Amino acid sequence: MKSSYLFLKQHKRSWRLAPPVRSLGFYTDHELLERQQVEWFEISLRFGPDQPRIRTTINGREYETAAPQMVIKRPGDLVFNAVQNVAQCLWISYDAPEFREMCDRGMPDWLAVEEIRPNRNLFRLFRDITSLVDRHPAPGVCERIDLLCLEFLQEALLDATLRERSRIDPAEEGKIRQIAEHFRINFAADLDIDQLLEKYGLSRRSFFRHWKNCFNRTPAQYIFELKMNEACRLLAETDRGMSEIALAVNFGSESYFCGAFRKYTGVTPRQFRLQNRLTLR
Fold first, then answer.
1. What residues are paired with 86 via a beta bridge?
2. How many domains does the structure of the chain reveal?
3. Do 234 and 144 belong to one domain?
4. Looking at CB atoms within 10 Å, which of 94, 126, 203, 276 has the fewest?
5. How many CB atoms lie within 10 A of CB 184?
6. Which 3 state secondary structure label does DSSP give 124?
């Protein structure tokens, strides 16, 4: 297939079920940029260089893997490529708002460069995406590309996450489970994360990386959910006032608690209490 590049940002979609792709490129015998300052979110899949391994440096950290290689670049990243040519390269980019949306939905923040294992679904999606490049801008093609690229990204992230989970040391996982239990018991207290990590001999980087392998939400989200679940219980089972409940789950003020509760449940604390007490009767 010949090399192609599409800039899709300016094309209006008829509907949006997936984040809109900013740009899409497929290149054969591709010359990589030696240095790149990234301004958007980009995922690229690199195939078959002459060299047996591909070396890439992102923000001063060096990664080296066999091909095919997946590279995740985030806004602000500084990237250096030691290998100048690859046989094939597919890359997909998104603007910063779509990147933030993906982060909110749990995209791993530790992932940067990974070797891709043989994966039938991933390579099927690769073929489907590249087959649409020449059909642009036929009606519906942009929307189809958005959906396929999202599925491609999900498949690549799932593959990398499952591989990372398989590498986790049982002893490290045990530490993470103990920290999670500490959160469950003490969520309403002022938690000192650094002191807790020191107790278990973990750096912040290794803690967050191992946590992602055990849970599908961040520690902050985990603690927040514990607080909300306890608030729901207190609203349904007790007559405590809003300020008392806010204090019990360690929110700074009643107004902050009420706003956070409504955002989490879709109803105010008083509405939740009324609905659930009626349900229980």
1. 30
2. 3
3. no
4. 203
5. 11
6. helix
